[in-house]
Amino acid sequence: VSRIESSMERLSLRVEALERENRSLMARQESLVAERAGLVQRNEEARSRVESMIERLKSLENAS
Question: Which tens digit of pLDDT belongs to each residue from 29-62?
Fold first, then answer.
């Protein structure tokens, strides 16, 4: 019985550690997803600005 109790205690501690690790990993994932969304948005804004500049340069070139 003592061995079973000892095993159960170790298992319980392991479960708690894994639950803490899981919460930490989930929070990290959430943070990375939010960061990625921000970077995607910034990339799209930069792409739009570059495309606009290219169009302006083309129109200036054609006007010459």
Answer: 999 999 999 999 999 999 999 999 999 999 999 9
Residue that is written with structure tokens 């319980």 in the block: 12
Rounded to whole angstroms, the Cα distance separating 51 from 45 reads 10
| DSSP category for residue 64 | -
Task: Give the residue ranges of DSSP H helices in the chain.
Answer: 2-63
Measured distance between the N- and C-terminal CA atoms of the chain, rounded to whole angstroms: 93
Assigned token pair, 61 = 């070139």
At residue 24's C-alpha, the angle toward residues 18 and 27, to 5°, is 140
